[in-house]
Specification:
single chain; mainly alpha; Serine Threonine Protein Phosphatase 5, Tetratricopeptide repeat; two-stranded antiparallel ribbon; about 75% helix
Length: about 425
């Protein structure tokens, strides 16, 4: 406000000064060209020049605006289309989140045609079409997304792979994901999708090659990776024998099984569940002595109660040496219930019945279990000590009747009466 007031004062002062000059001396200007002369006062000439400048400026602006009306019209129309597109996109995404697939597809597809970012619209519309089981519309929308934004091939292909996996199109999905691996080799989500496809295809060998990659990129949690590894290598071990022709001899089956076992990662051959599976396969093929030797070596490297228990279940070439081996372990593992149970079983293989009873009793004292109780009562009955076996069962009835509800029981005097 102060600046405007100051400007008005300056203009008034200048006008007063200029008016005084015009009254005092109007000036004289003579313009001659060829035979033509123009005479006028100086101030009239100045006014004419000023008016001519204003008129020329106005004329130029008028011509410019008249010449380019379509550009402004186009800009206005473009702005209007974008506004409409954003409104439809928001409505379409809202409908998509609400599960209104048909309307969501319609709004998103319409908005994509006038959107400056059509990729989002087409991909969302494709998901809506997929939820309606409209495969043709889904594929068309995915193709439009790919054509609208060629540089977003990875994004489009991931959506395509998800939809193919949901449809159960495992082979096409695998092809899509393998192509994605070449485009984005470090994309952890692509790795997880590939893992899901291998699981559904039961392609355990391919999955075993993917697991180290999943681990190095931390694509899964450690417990998930461990569970996945156990499942994968368990199937590989089983299929090394099961997938052989029926006419394959046991010797050839053993060769195939041994080769597969050696090819497994070292940390997997130390896991008790997988060792137990390998041992059972060896026993089923008549190679129980090889199973005993493998268990012995593994227990020496890494003490595992489950493997020690399993060691007492297999029969080696020499029962006496097997018992001596277990006794040597007892020097360091005096309080191992599993080892005492194994010593009892190996004593029975050597027909040392009294020692077997002692070992079973010691194991039962350290860790009461139905397995140890079963071995001890079975042995006592065969030794003619049925009363002691019956008493033992009564004392440890909770081990063999787990899960029974708490119920009132009659008094012993009532039972006697």
């Amino acid at each position: 406000m102060k600046k405007l007031f100051l400007l008005l004062l300056i203009m008034l002062a200048a006008g007063a000064w200029l008016g005084e000059k015009m009254i005092k001396d109007s000036g004289y200007v003579l313009v001659a060209y060829d035979q033509t002369t123009i005479e006028t006062s100086l101030w009239v000439l100045v006014v004419l020049i000023a008016v001519s400048f204003v008129a020329f400026h106005w004329l130029v602006n008028l011509i410019t605006r008249t010449r380019f009306p379509t550009a402004k019209l186009h800009a206005w129309k473009e702005h209007r289309n974008q506004r409409i597109s954003r409104r439809k996109t928001l409505k379409g995404l809202t409908l998509l989140s609400e599960g209104n697939w048909a309307q969501a597809q319609k709004q998103l597809a319409q908005a994509a045609e006038k959107s400056d970012l059509p990729l989002i619209n087409y991909l969302s519309a494709a998901r809506a079409a997929h939820e309606q089981n409209n495969d043709q519309a889904t594929d068309d929308l995915l193709q439009k997304a790919r054509s609208s934004t060629p540089e977003a091939e990875v994004t489009v292909a991931i959506t395509q792979a998800e939809i193919q996996l949901s449809r159960g199109q495992l082979e096409p999905c695998l092809a899509t994901l393998l192509r994605l691996r070449s485009l984005a080799p470090k994309n952890s989500y692509v790795m997880k999708l590939l893992k899901d496809v291998y699981l559904r295809l039961n392609d355990w060998k391919a999955l075993s090659k993917l697991i180290p990659v999943l681990r190095s990129h931390q694509a899964l949690k450690e417990d998930e990776l461990n569970a996945l590894s156990s499942e994968c290598y368990s199937h590989i071990l089983n299929e090394s024998v099961a997938n052989l022709p029926i006419e394959t001899s046991d010797e050839d089956r053993l060769t195939a099984l041994g080769r597969t076992w050696r090819e497994l990662p070292t940390e997997q051959t130390l896991k008790s569940d997988l060792v137990q599976q390998y041992t059972e396969l060896l026993v089923s093929l008549g190679a129980e002595s090889r199973a005993e030797q493998n268990l012995r070596d593994l227990i020496k490297k890494n003490w595992d109660e489950k493997l020690v228990n399993l060691y007492g279940r297999v029969s080696g070439e020499n029962a006496k040496k097997q018992l001596d081996q277990a006794r040597s372990w007892a020097k360091k593992h005096t309080e191992s219930p599993a080892l005492l149970l194994t010593l009892g079983r190996l004593s029975m293989r050597n027909q040392y019945w009294g020692q077997a009873v002692k070992y079973f009793e010691q194991s039962l004292d350290l860790e009461p279990s139905a397995e140890t109780l079963g071995e001890l009562t079975r042995l006592l009955r065969h030794l003619g000590e049925s009363d002691q076996a019956q008493l033992l069962l009564q004392q440890n009835i909770n081990l063999v009747t787990t899960g029974l509800p708490e119920l009132p029981m009659p008094e012993e005097t009532q039972v006697s009466a």
